[in-house]
Amino acid sequence: MKNQLYSRQGIYDIIRSHYLRNFPYTIEFEALNAINEHISLIIDSASIQKNESGEYVFINNNPNMEVDDPFESTERNLAAYLSKSSGVEALFQDVNALQKWLLQYGFIHGGIATEKMLVTNKL
User: What is the pLDDT of residues 34-72, one digit of tens each?
Assistant: First the structure.
């Protein structure tokens, strides 16, 4: 994986969750939608959006980061990682690459999760 935050399983969970939320309806997969669904589960007011120059950037409308907190938080780690353009780019690359593989190996067909994806919780 090119990103430094999610394992292959984590990326699969993002993609699988996106398809299962929409099942049994056909979707045209876009990494942005799958990633934003995932982000919204962790940080309510955050998302990745395309800016005026066409770059994808992380937006957190209500940052709640306690810098003096000695414990790591998933929210803070995700926000810090996606605040870097390299983090956003790497996550997009991994999601798109794994989604392509899932199509090739029968987990997705015609924009719908197949039975193979429905029963496969872990890669």
Answer: 999 999 998 888 999 999 998 999 998 876 654 445 555
In terms of Cα–Cα distance, which of 118, 123, 100, 88 is closest to 19? 118
CA-to-CA distance for 49 and 30, rounded, in angstroms? 13
Residues 111-121: tens digit of each pLDDT: 999 999 999 99
The burial of 103, by beta-carbon neighbours within 10 Å (0-12 exposed, 13-18 middle, 19 or more buried), is given as middle
φ, ψ at 94 (rounded to 5°): -65, -45
| Pair 51, 87: CB distance under 8 Å | no
DSSP state letter for 18: H
Q: What is the pTM of this model?
A: 0.88
